[in-house]
Write a structure and sequence with these properties.
Residues 1-24 are annotated as: Disordered. The chain has 320 residues and is mainly beta. It has two helices and 21 strands. A nine-stranded antiparallel sheet has the order 6-7-8-9-21-18-17-12-15, with no helix packed on it. Strands 5, 10, 11, 13, 14, 16, 19 and 20 form an eight-stranded antiparallel sheet that branches. Strands 1-2-3-4 form a four-stranded antiparallel sheet, with no helix packed on it. The chain is globular and about 60 Å long. The structure holds 6-O-phosphono-beta-D-glucopyranose (BG6). Residues 76, 89, 103-104, 192, 216, 236, 266, 268, 294 line the site of 6-O-phosphono-beta-D-glucopyranose. The site of 6-O-phosphono-beta-D-glucopyranose has 10 residues, from strand 19.
Length: 320
């Protein structure tokens, strides 16, 4: 062994640089977790690029995830944020382009690729490492992970980039859809967020007053919202509205959802009977602890010509 009297000692950290966000993978590479130096974290399942967990710095979970949710790629995830593309709900039989697709399309049943992470400084407290981390995921018509049902039923060339950005007090998810085909295609986009609440009977949703909505539990009739929304039974409504949507419980604001280029918001709670009928919805009284507030563009179709792109995003802020 060569003696080196002036051997350099290892560098533990670069002095002056705050700690950085970390990104790690599960052993089977199915999950990506990003953690901020201050403790907030997100976990994304590559199947569906489904965000399945968002925790604040005290490890308090913000998303509802069914205890019977399948995370093995055999079924869309019941919880977190399943991503809906290119059709919302059961495909309309009179829309030839999507009519052979499964309910809510194939983005949530395809395995996405992790494209990488980037970090940036949010508003400046250098000492506590007040940083954000962005994870990018991709899915294209050429991807190995594309749900095999999609190729036949929706034979267009497309590219999707989904970005999930974690800040200390908010989470942004943003989708860019690009048409790489020679032909135009129609699509819909929706972020099916399952927010966690403590007691649905104490929840009120504001920001949708005077907005028109389609009431899916009342023969898809069109109605106008009056005042705040309370959940008192099965609720399945497609609102068309601008502006932030706020979810409060017992008068305290839990979440504020803002949207970019997504003109619809679905408000969904299955309540007792519907929850019983879903095999992957557990516990059965879990409907008391969840509320879906789902920003999307689902009122009509986004028609993308060759080379066109569509981008939509949501930001969920804690409190505010
Ligand atoms: C909501 C729809 O977005 O998703 C509901 O408005 C639907 O009608 C719900 O029941 C859940 O859908 P799925 O396919 O995940 O069971």
């Amino acid at each position: 062994m060569v003696e080196r009297p002036n051997k350099p000692s290892s560098l533990v950290a670069t002095p002056g640089l705050p700690p950085q966000p970390t990104v790690s993978f599960s052993d089977d590479n199915s999950l990506v977790t990003a953690t901020l130096p201050t403790g907030e974290s997100i976990t994304v399942l590559l199947y569906g690029a489904t965000v399945i967990s968002w925790k604040d710095s005290s490890s308090s979970e913000k998303f509802w995830l069914s205890s019977a949710a399948k995370l093995d790629g055999t079924k869309p995830v019941r919880g977190g944020i399943p991503l809906i593309f290119p059709v919302f709900g059961p495909p309309p039989p009179d829309h030839a382009q999507t009519s052979s697709l499964p309910q809510h399309g194939f983005a949530r049943t395809s395995r996405w690729e992790f494209l990488g992470k980037s970090t940036s400084e949010s508003s400046g407290n250098q000492q506590t490492g007040d940083l954000s981390v962005k994870l990018d995921f991709g899915l294209s018509s050429a991807a190995n992970g594309l749900d095999p049902k999609a190729k036949e039923a929706w034979p267009y060339k497309f590219n999707l980039i989904y970005s999930v950005t974690l800040n200390r007090k908010d989470l942004t998810t943003s989708l860019v859809v690009t048409n790489d085909d020679e032909r135009p295609f129609d699509c819909q986009v929706l972020m099916h967020t399952y927010l966690k609440v403590n007691d649905i009977t104490k929840v009120s949703i504001s920001g949708l007053d005077n907005s028109s909505y389609i009431d899916k539990v009342d023969a898809a009739s069109t109605k106008t919202q009056s005042g705040e929304i309370q959940i008192e039974g099965e609720t399945d409504r497609v609102y068309t509205a601008d502006g932030p949507v706020t979810v409060a419980e017992g008068g305290k604001t839990l979440y504020t959802v803002t949207r970019d280029n997504l003109s619809n918001v679905v408000v969904w709670n299955p309540w007792i009977e519907k929850a019983k009928g879903m095999g992957d919805f557990e516990p059965k009284d879990g409907y008391k602890e969840m509320l879906c507030v789902e920003p999307g563009s689902v009122g009509g179709w986004q028609t993308l010509e060759k080379g066109d792109a569509f981008e939509g995003a949501q930001t969920i802020s804690l409190g505010v």
